[in-house]
Design brief:
Blueprint: H1 4-7, E1 8-9, E2 12-13, H2 20-25, E3 40-44, H3 49-54, H4 61-72, E4 81-84, H5 98-115, E5 119-122, H6 125-132, H7 138-141, E6 145-150, E7 153-158, H8 165-168, H9 172-186, H10 195-203
Parallel strand pairs: 3-4, 3-5, 5-7
Antiparallel strand pairs: 1-2, 6-7
Bound molecules: uracil.
C-alpha cells in the first residue's frame, strides 16, 4: 500500500487500491463535494449506482430527498460539504465491510480535519456508528448531538436517518426534516424556505 500522501491531493483521493473488491466494483473514486471550508459536513455510507456513474455523492434518489429537505430547511446544497465513509461503490450496493471502512478512514479523517466543520451529520446507521465508534439506533437517536474525537480535535455529531429510510417508512421524512432543521439551527443557518430572510441566511452560511 502506498503512503496516504501519495494518493490524496487536498481533499481528493486520486488513486487507491486498498480494497480489492471495491476496485473491481467501482467505475471511479467518488470524492466529497462542496466548499473546502464548510460549517456542515454530511457523511453518507458509500456511493450507489448513480454516484458511481456521476462521480458525486448523493445524486440519485436519496440525493433528491436530501436536496429537497435541505432546501426546506433553508440550506443550500452548494454551501454544505457532502462526503461518504467509503469512496468506492460496493458490489450490489452491499454495506461496506469493517475492513473497507477502516481502509478509507484516513481519507475521511483528513477531509474532516481540513474542512473543520462546526457540525458533522452522519446520514444513517453506518456513518453514525463509524464516527461515534459505538452501535447507534438511528431512528430513536435522530436529532441527538454527541461529541467525537477525530485527530486532535473534538467535533459535534448530529445523529440523522439516511434519506433512503423515507422510501420504506414515510414517517421518517418528518424525522429527517426535524433533524436537518436542528442542523441548520446549530450552525446558525436556520430560517426555512422562501422569503428574503431564508435566502440571506443561506448567503451568510
Ligand atoms: N447513499 C449514501 O450513503 N451515499 C451516497 O453517496 C448515496 C447514497
Amino acid at each position: 500500500m502506498s503512503e496516504e500522501s501519495d494518493e490524496m491531493d487536498g481533499l481528493e483521493v486520486l488513486a487507491c487500491e486498498r480494497c480489492p473488491a471495491l476496485c473491481e466494483s467501482r467505475s471511479r473514486i467518488v470524492n466529497g463535494v462542496g466548499p473546502a471550508a464548510a460549517d456542515l459536513l454530511f457523511v453518507g455510507e458509500a456511493p450507489g449506482e448513480s454516484e458511481d456513474r456521476q462521480g458525486e455523492p448523493f445524486v440519485g434518489r436519496s440525493g433528491d430527498v436530501l436536496d429537497s429537505i435541505l432546501e426546506e430547511c433553508g440550506l443550500d446544497r452548494t454551501a454544505v460539504r457532502i462526503t461518504n465513509c467509503v469512496r468506492c461503490r460496493p458490489p450490489e450496493n452491499r454495506d461496506p465491510t469493517g475492513e473497507e471502512l477502516g481502509n478509507c478512514r484516513s481519507y475521511l479523517d483528513r477531509e474532516i480535519e481540513r474542512v473543520d466543520p462546526e457540525l458533522l451529520v452522519p446520514l444513517g446507521k453506518v456513518p453514525a456508528e463509524h464516527l461515534l465508534d459505538r452501535s447507534v439506533a438511528v431512528t430513536t437517536e435522530a436529532g441527538a448531538v454527541h461529541d467525537a474525537r477525530i485527530g486532535d480535535a473534538s467535533y459535534r455529531v448530529l445523529v440523522c436517518v439516511h434519506p433512503a429510510a423515507t422510501f420504506y417508512d414515510p414517517s421518517q421524512t418528518d424525522t429527517l426534516e426535524a433533524t436537518l432543521e436542528t442542523a441548520a439551527e446549530l450552525v446558525g443557518a436556520s430560517g426555512g424556505t422562501g422569503g428574503e430572510s431564508g435566502q440571506s441566511r443561506i448567503d451568510g452560511f
